[in-house]
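Sharing a chain and its predicted structure for anyone who wants a worked example. Both blocks are below, sequence first, tokens second.
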Amino acid sequence: MPEPEPLDLRHLGRDRVIGCYLLETEDGPALQDCGPASCLPELKARLEERGLELRDLHHLLLSHIHLDHAGAAGVLVREHPGLQVHVSEIGAPHLVDPSRLEASARRLYGDEFDRLWGELAAVPQANVHAVGAETLGLTCFPTPGHASHHVCYLDRDGILYAGDAAGVRIRPSTFVLPPTPPPEVDLEAWERTLDAIAAHEPQRLALIHFGVFEDAGRHLDELRARLRASSERVRDGATEQEFEAAAAADLGPEREAYEQAMPFWQSYAGLKRYWEKRAA
């Protein structure tokens, strides 16, 4: 099977920051993640390039409900009421009633919310389905750590649609950045998730941020090492400024795309919250 290509949603006009994947399932075409509503014109353009419209899609398979992955779900269903949305059982209620999710995100992003993410609309209950161990012919399994409700999808060709569970890596870079935003980062759970991903022996990793990578073993090892290093940096007392400076130094000229995909201040805030909860 040819390598899947992410549909580049060109978030805020930048290439290779947020993508999603077009899959052929046992029940027709599906998207894996959909990006935010602010990227909806780009999503429609990418589908049109492939001879498709929204109404041609049957399903939306979500890794988790963070806005960069699932923010457009409600708007998509409003425009295409036949679209069926699949998400973890924990995440499902927040699609049906996104008010708490939106309030939390608006506190975090302030006046930038609308520019970054656009409208956050509810998905009708009838369109929302909790994933099982197999969903539309793909193996689906829980992958908490980045978020408690995160899931991954593995197809029969060994391609793991990894959401954020396998980190951020902007093609063609080899650098793997751990995305650790608040409020749910759980380092112990993420270690177990990396073990579970490795046990499934994926041949390729399809990342939303951004691209498909064949060096799955090396990639996962690097993510594990960098996750430990960044968390220890915060545990040992690094300030936000010191954390950001270290991340910028690690990335060098690749910084801008990575920081747009996963702002360093958010990664710091998530890890700081994690260690504060542990101390309490």
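Comments welcome. The chain is about 40% helix and 15% strand.
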